[in-house]
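Example record used in the benchmark description.
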Amino acid sequence: MNKQETYDYLKMCGVDFEITEHPAVWNMEDVAQIAMPHPEADAKNLFVREDKTDNFYMITVRGDKRVDLKALRKAESLRPLKFASEEDLSARLGLFPGAVTPLGLLNDETRHVVLYLDEYFLQPGALIGAHPNDNTATVWLKTEDLVRILRAHGSEVRVIPIPSR
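Model output (structure tokens):
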């Protein structure tokens, strides 16, 4: 799904959302340079894989949180985690670095990528900011809506406290 197809899909699913168009952002430092309407909902997304397996995960946390991959691995009984390659990101989710987003799981035809979502985003009425499969915009939607559409798509979503360093 491209940006417009993502917007259309959200509308089709009955999701209320707000769009912030902005210059391309490649990391959280770039995001910090933009006046975002919901800074508390900024999300950082890491695309990782287990060592020596074909298991892929997206980890979504607050933009200012540093993820402790070793602690996450231990808590979830996973093999050692490493960042997935650009090729894996493109092949699995049709995304490119800088545009990693939970909405990319809608491109996962095999429903193979598991989303680990930090429980921070599931406070009552909480919003989350996610790229619409393109890093030139951010979509703000209720986290519960994001979880609902991903699960309806068949993606596994695990809401846990993501350990930080």
